[in-house]
Amino acid sequence: MHFAIIGGTGLSQLEGLESVRHQVVSTPFGEPSGPLSIGRMSGCDVVFLPRHGYNHRIAPHEINYRANIWALREMGITRILAVSSVGGITPAMQPGTLCVPNQIIDYTWGRPSTFFEGDLESVTHIDFSYPFAQSLRAAFLRSAAALSIPLIDGGTYGATQGPRLETAAEILKFERDGCDVVGMTGMPEAVLARESDIAYASLNVVANRAAGKNGGGEVDFSKMNHTIAHAMNNVRAIFTQILQTRDCAICADH
Ligand code: HPA
Fold this sequence. Notes:
Elements: E1 3-7, E2 18-23, E3 36-41, E4 44-50, H1 65-74, E5 79-88, E6 98-100, E7 103-106, H2 134-146, E8 152-153, E9 156-159, H3 168-177, E10 181-183, H4 186-195, E11 199-209, H5 224-244
Parallel strand pairs: 1-4, 1-5, 5-11, 6-8, 7-9, 9-10
Antiparallel strand pairs: 2-3, 3-4, 5-10, 6-11
The structure holds hypoxanthine (HPA).
């Protein structure tokens, strides 16, 4: 088993995953967000894990990111494609837009965010200059292009603590920092994957305009679910395309 999808808000189940079995994996860090769903999709072995749990009940700051990534590594996973919904900060990031970010700024706090602590033989640092795997980013972009689905190449993801949304001033600060989108789950997921030698890329679905970016109004929750549900059709199509074309050796048994 080499390839996993981590689903976010709007992707708690992976339609099209066949012959699914569920595997409970215990880790030194506790329980993952749920049993891993292991099955076949477009002729490839795929492991699926919804980071908020199958019933979408685990808040972003309470997700056991270490257990999730540890469990996937235990299964032999070497590549993770993640999906997350985000708020749009820069003008291009309108609701419904899809983006494959290439950078991260981490504003989260208090989350266990490394495997390299405690009883170590030596202090370990990892390179994280470019937090996403270019090969997997390219697979997303190629597949979207083949399907004529608009997908923005690059952007900086600001990872916030949540679960509350941001203030307008916080979003202005993030914008000055260079963030294009804001979300609550990108970190420490990405860094834990890197520490585990797992290639990782994320597909962001813009669910709403971020705080203060909505023409002076509050964040508009009313359309969020519809926007995400609609965009997820494109997300699913992109995954199917990646698997069908065996892009990027994602499906290692072909
Ligand atoms: N802020 C943070 N996380 C989010 C948002 C937002 O506006 N929308 C979806 N996830």
